[in-house]
Amino acid sequence: MEGLPPEALTQVAAYFQVLSEPTRLQILNLLRTGERNVGEIAQACGFTAANVSRHLSLLTQHGLVARESRGTAAYYRIADESIYALCDLVCGNIARQLERQAAGRQAFVQATPKAPRSRPR
Predict the structure, then answer these.
(1) Are both 61 and 4 inside the same structural domain?
(2) Of 3, 28, 65, 89, which has the fewest Cβ atoms less than 10 A away?
(3) Can you give the residue ranges of the HTH arsR-type domain (predicted)?
(4) Per-residue three-class SS string for the chain
(5) 107 lies in some domain
(6) Are residues 70 and 39 in the same domain?
(7) Chain centroid to CA 87: how far?
(8) 121: in domain
(9) Do residues 57 and 96 share a domain?
(10) Residue in 33, 57, 60 with CA at minimum distance from that of residue 44
(11) 13 and 50 housed in the same domain
């Protein structure tokens, strides 16, 4: 991103904003196994076809998903496989952060002296 003008950074931010919605991430993850139509995606995700269509429209506008009409159905597939490398990179980073946090909590628990238990009277 170094040296990008503000207009380009706006486009980068919009791209990441599309990825900030869990439903769209779920759709992308589902399309990892192959192309599907709206009904198949809606059924697999548990969302309405209208909701899935709205998300697919945004994903298509930003070049993440490609649409192909076949008869009365539209089929969607991943347009850029590099999205999975990006998502895997982010997921790995989050996993490492959670591991560090868990280790920090464990160290705190081990270092904290236990309070004596009071005896019931």
Answers:
(1) yes
(2) 3
(3) 4-98
(4) CCCCCHHHHHHHHHHHHHCCCHHHHHHHHHHCCCCEEHHHHHHHHCCCHHHHHHHHHHHHHCCCEEEEEECCEEEEEECCCHHHHHHHHHHHHHHHHHHHHHHHHHHHHHHCCCCCCCCCC
(5) yes
(6) yes
(7) 7
(8) no
(9) no
(10) 33
(11) yes
Closest by alpha carbon to 27, among 72, 62, 71, 70?
62
The dihedral sign for the CA sequence 88, 90, 93, 98: negative
**Tens of pLDDT, residues 30-70:** 999 999 999 999 999 999 999 999 999 999 999 999 999 99
Within this chain, do residues 35 and 75 fall inside the same structural domain, yes or no? Answer: yes
d(CA 56, CA 76): 8
Q: Say yes or no: 5 and 58 in one domain.
A: yes
Tokens at residue 18, please? Answer: 């599309």
Which structural domain, as residue segments, surrounds residue 13?
Answer: 1-80
User: Tokens representing 6?
Assistant: 């503000």
pLDDT tens digit string along 80-117? 999 999 989 999 999 999 998 888 888 777 776 766 66
* pTM score, whole prediction: 0.78
Place of tokens 């998502």: 87
